[in-house]
């Protein structure tokens, strides 16, 4: 770790993620950073460079390429271990990744996602009806709207029993925090794996109309997902499938309520709600820094050399506000920006398989919310909102609003 002596220590609680990213960017396009426990990595702060790295054949996802992990230098209870250790699509490369993605894609088809829209619309209507009964006091829109929509959608898709939703949510929040204590990391991992193993056993015994059942049955050239690959894939889909959408909807409502002129453009139809979704994904990526990729050989990049075996963070939040790509007004929330290309769902072979579902949920939830509650407003000054304690998950802990004036 001596090579990383002059590093930028990322704050595990991320009280000002974008302020920290500006400080990183001021150091250069490729910055050596220190993760929890003194673990070194590289952060790439430029859109163009990150986009290149995400398809660079010298960059891998398999943690077998990370000597710090394979040598035992990274402790078992390291807060980010659940992002780098699980077997499955997210940590596979090359032919292995293509095999796993092909199996997953048999269950996660565009046709299936498109067919879910009526259910999404029905869920949104029921949640808005429930919000109506809470009128009077400030309502936490993250807890009472964004979370149940995201969790019910992915839970139903995977066949998770509704009585387990809140437990999965709590465990997912623990997993995505970069400040989680080692004993909690281990306990969270054990509990999540046990719950998913029980779900798999239930679906093997009684298959249903859900992706878990489909993944169990999925074949490609006579192949099946192994038990570890199956559970690792379900873990990814559960955590990313609700956490990303939860943050996206929360961040979108916050952006619109703090930019009334932009909100008016969307509500009046002058700008499409798809533009709102894409601008929020760019400016307030649901994921800040995503671990982890690894250099499989020395990579000269922007005046630095990422050495073979070094870890790399995909800094999506940094790429989304990169002024060298989006101009000097990159920090602004602007629906007049035009077609927005961003990296918030990744790029290349590991592009998020659930991107279409997340977009669908946001593009139903947002116009429906503002149509039902046109006087919706923040109940507290925006500067008093508390960020999530994570440089991975980018949003706020709560979003208190007044439904009516």
From TrEMBL:
Source taxon at top rank: Bacteria
Residue ranges of the TM segments: none
Keywords, sorted A to Z: Heme, Iron, Metal-binding, Monooxygenase, Oxidoreductase
InterPro entries xrefs: Cyt_P450, Cyt_P450_B, Cyt_P450_CS, Cyt_P450_sf
Iron as UniProt keyword: yes
Annotated Pfam families: p450 (PF00067)
Entry-linked PANTHER family: CYTOCHROME P450 YJIB-RELATED (PTHR46696:SF1), P450, PUTATIVE (EUROFUNG)-RELATED (PTHR46696)
Similarity section: Belongs to the cytochrome P450 family.
Protein name: Cytochrome P450
């Amino acid at each position: 770790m001596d090579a990383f002596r002059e590093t930028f220590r990322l704050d595990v609680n991320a009280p000002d993620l974008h302020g920290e990213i500006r400080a990183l960017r001021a150091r250069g396009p490729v910055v050596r950073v220190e993760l929890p426990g003194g673990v070194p990595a590289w952060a790439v702060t430029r859109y163009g460079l990150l986009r290149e790295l995400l398809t660079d054949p010298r960059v891998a996802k398999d943690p077998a390429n990370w000597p710090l992990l394979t040598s035992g230098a990274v402790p078992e209870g390291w807060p980010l271990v659940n992002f780098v250790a699980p077997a499955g699509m997210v940590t596979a490369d090359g032919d292995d990744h293509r095999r796993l993605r092909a199996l997953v894609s048999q269950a996660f088809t565009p046709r299936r996602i498109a067919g879910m829209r009526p259910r999404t619309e029905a869920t949104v209507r029921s949640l808005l009806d429930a919000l109506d009964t809470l009128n009077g006091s400030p309502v936490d829109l993250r807890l009472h709207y964004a979370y149940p929509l995201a969790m019910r959608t992915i839970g139903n898709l995977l066949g998770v029993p509704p009585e387990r939703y809140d437990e999965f949510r709590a465990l997912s929040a623990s997993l995505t925090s970069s400040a989680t204590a080692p004993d909690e990391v281990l306990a969270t991992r054990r509990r999540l794996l046990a719950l998913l193993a029980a779900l798999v056993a239930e679906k093997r015994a009684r298959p249903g109309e859900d992706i878990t059942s489909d993944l169990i049955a999925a074949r490609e050239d006579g192949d099946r997902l192994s038990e570890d690959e199956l559970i690792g894939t379900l873990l990814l889909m559960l955590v990313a499938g609700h956490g990303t959408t939860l943050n996206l909807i929360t961040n979108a409502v916050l952006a619109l309520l703090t930019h009334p002129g932009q909100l008016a453009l969307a509500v009046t139809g002058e700008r499409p709600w798809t533009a709102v979704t894409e601008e929020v994904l760019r400016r307030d990526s649901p994921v800040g820094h995503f671990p982890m990729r690894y250099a499989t050989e020395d990579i000269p990049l922007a005046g630095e050399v990422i050495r073979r075996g070094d870890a790399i963070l995909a800094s999506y939040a940094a790429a989304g506000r990169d002024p060298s790509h989006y101009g000097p007004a990159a920090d602004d929330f602007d629906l007049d920006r035009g077609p927005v290309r961003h990296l918030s769902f990744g790029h290349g072979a590991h592009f998020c398989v659930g991107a279409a579902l997340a977009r669908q949920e946001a593009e139903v939830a947002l116009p429906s919310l503002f149509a039902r509650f046109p006087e919706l407003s923040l109940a507290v000054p925006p500067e008093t909102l508390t960020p999530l304690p994570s440089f991975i998950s980018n949003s706020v802990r709560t979003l208190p609003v007044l439904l009516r004036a």
